Structure formats: C-alpha cells, structure tokens
Amino acid sequence: MGEAKNLDNTSGSSKKVLLVKYFIPALLVLWCARIWHFYSNPFSLLFSNSTVGVSEIQTDPNYCNPIGLIGDSPCEFETINVVNQDISSELHRLVQTPFFRYYKLNLHKQCPFWPNNYLCNREDCSVEVMDEAEVPEELKKKLGAIDFSPAGLGLQPFKKCEFTEKDFCVLEDESSQDGVYVNLIRNPERFTGYTGAPAHKIWQAIYEENCFAPIRLISDGNDHISPMTNALVDSTKEEDETCLEKRVFYRLMSGLHASISVHICDEYFNQTTGQWGSNFECFHERVGKHADRIENIYFNYAILLRALNKMSIYLQRYDFCSGNPGEDASIKEILNRILKLSKSSPPTFDEKALFSDSASMILKEEFKDHFRNVTRIMDCVGCEKCRLWGKIQTTGLGTALKVLFSYDDYKFGARGNPNILQRSEIVALINTFNRFAESISSIQRFRKMYFEKKDEIYHL
C-alpha cells in the first residue's frame, strides 16, 4: 500500500512536471499568437471566415456616421450630408467646365524651407501638362497663374508683393511666363505612392505652423499628425484651454489632411493586380477609425459652404468669359443651382465669433502668417501631382478665410468690387469645395462597404 501510494505520488508529480513544462507554455504560445494576429490585423475577428454567421458579427452601428453638432460650428453633421447629396453632383459638373478645370502654375519652385528636397520619380507623381494651343484665347487672357519662382531660402519675412494684408495665402504674380497650363481633370488627386518620410516631413511642418497653439502632436504611422488628446492629455481640458481661433486652424489642417487621405484610399492603385479601386483597409487606418478626422472634414466643408454663401451675389455677377457663350451660360446655370442649394441649409459657421475684439487682432495676423506659410510648404512637396492639389486646396481654404475674415458682407454685394478675388482664387475655392464634397460622399460609400462586405472586406 505504501509503495503503491508512492507510485501514485510519483505519477502525479510527473503529470505536474509535464503540465508546467510543456502544456502551459504551449497554451501561452497559442494565446500570444492569437493576440499578435488580432493586433496586426484588427478586423481579423470581425471579418474572419469563421463558422459565425454574417448576421452575428459585431459591428459599430455608428461607424463613419457622426451625429449632433460639428465641433466649433452651429451646423449638424446630418445637415451637411443632406446638402451634399444634391450639391455634390452640381459641383462635379461645374469643375468639368474649361473655366474651372484649366489651371496655370510653375511646377518647379524651389522649396523655401529646407534644401535637398526629395523628388518622387514615379510615373503617377508626374503632372500631364497641356499644350498651350488647347487653351481658348479668351480664357488664356483671364487664366490666373500661381508663380512658383524661387523667393530665397529659410523662414524669412514675405516680400510685400507676394500678398496683400487681406490674403490668407500667398498668390504670386499672375502674369508670370514661367507657368504651364494644366487640365485638372487629366490630373486627378489619387494614390501616387508618395508616402513615408518625405510625406511625413511635409505634414509635420504643416502642423508645426500651429505652434501658436498649445497642442502637442504625435504621428500615427500613416503620415497623419494628431493632437495628443488620446494619449497624455485630457481632451476636454485641452480644448477648454485652447481658444476658438487656434482650434479652427488645427481643424482646417487636420480636415485637409484627412480629406486628401480619403481621396488616396478611394482611388488606390493595387500594385499586385494593377487596378485602381477603393481600399477599405487604407481608409479605415487613415481616417475611418478616427472620429476627430471625420469631424474635421465636415468642419472644412462647413467653412467652405459658409464662404460660398457669403459671396453668392459676387459669383452671380462674375464674368466667366471663356470665349464660348454657350459654356459661359452653362456655368451660370450650374452655379445658380449650387448657390440655391447652399442657401437652403441652416448657418454652417459663424465667422463673427472669431477675432471679435481688439486683443485678438494680433492673433489674426499670426493666423494669417501661419496659413501663408502652409501654402509655401506645398512648394516643398516632392510629388508634382500632390504639390498641384496641395497648392490648389490650401489656396481654396485660404480664399474662404479671406472671404470670411477680410471683408464685410457688403463688399460681396451688388455694388462690391468685382476684382476683390483673382480668377485663380475662385477656381481654387470651387475645386477645393468639390474635393471635400467628394470626401463626404466617399465616407458614405466606405460606411456602406463596412456593412455590406464585412465578411469580404480583406479580399477586395
């Protein structure tokens, strides 16, 4: 009996040894592998081809569907969605017209902030230049130029001729002979392969122009810089301590960045298949899972819509002389429909809430200086096509700010100066508004994809 008992004890001890030595470590390895698989592919559980039915897969019902008021705006997200359903198609038609699709710029301006700028040599980075003979003579006379001629190196004071006190962006000599004509329809904003350290450096420099605000920045690895509200800083406390003007600047930059990311992911080049198409993984990582980035896209849209409303009479009276009376009439018809739709929405932004006292006038000048620098940083982008659209959209936003903060309403009335804005500013504003309208539409498509193809999403 005693011997048998000792045998049993020996057997039990051996089992414990085997359990500790082999079985538990094996379980730990399997558990760690599962955790690593989930973190390396966060939708692996959500979209895995398991025995769980599609209806049983857990999804976020509010994915890419923000509700309530847009931050720092009296407008609701749903209002923007409703307006954009009708206005986006009209904007698409408008930017197809010669007046809004032809642009002139110098593609070879030297970066004013750092030497040895990286240049993207990929075919998708290059811009297709027009033959000057394709441009109608009447339109050629009006066609504004963005002159990228070198203005020296380093962060130095702007030359007086580069902008007026009313401008939020740098608009150089429109009579420059160094520019080339570009058809924007033939050079769409989409994936070019320009990414990594060069792109990160550009966005880092842009966000650092917000240095007059106490917002610390981090990168998420996708060339998108974010305030550290999700890490070491309480977001509510930080927002309370940051004045409206400073938040608006950051929201504009973040919204522009997020919108560009949406376009890249919506027209993504699959290097394996050689085909263009929507890339859900790209969208989710860069924009979809970041509620603040989506909100800032809507915020930019609200700013642009408000500017369009303020200058509606001015645009209705503007001379869109392109040498073709039929096309000019078509522009007027489309534009009038856009303005009618834009006026049907409730107020989307209250510009009078910013720079409202004498103390904030200094801040207003700082705001202008920083935004002008952002437009100049676009000259450091090593991808021609990215530079083209970056310059257009920063100019478009700068024009919206100029309309909202540099002039009273009556300046854009029936008796206002018809030369307040250059043609290049109007073209940039409308094309920028169209890009944000397409971003809103793309977000809705990606949301639909999230629900309809959740079991296939990683096989797209």
Automatic annotation (TrEMBL):
Could you tell me the keywords of this UniProt record?
Answer: Disulfide bond, Electron transport, Endoplasmic reticulum, FAD, Flavoprotein, Glycoprotein, Membrane, Oxidoreductase, Redox-active center, Signal, Transmembrane, Transmembrane helix, Transport
**A Pfam family recorded for this sequence:** ERO1
Q: Where in the cell is it found?
A: Endoplasmic reticulum membrane
- InterPro entries assigned: Ero1, ERO1-like_sf
Is Endoplasmic reticulum one of the keywords?
yes
Q: Please list the cofactors this protein needs.
A: FAD
Spans traversing the lipid bilayer: 20-39
**Would the keyword Transmembrane helix turn up in this protein's UniProt record?**
yes
Signal peptide range equals: none
> How does this chain sit within the bilayer?
Peripheral membrane protein
Q: Share what the entry says about its subunit structure, partners included.
A: May function both as a monomer and a homodimer.
Q: Which family does it belong to?
A: Belongs to the EROs family.
What is the protein's name according to its record?
Endoplasmic oxidoreductin-1
Name its species.
Basidiobolus ranarum
Lineage, uppermost ranks: Eukaryota, Fungi, Fungi incertae sedis, Zoopagomycota, Entomophthoromycotina
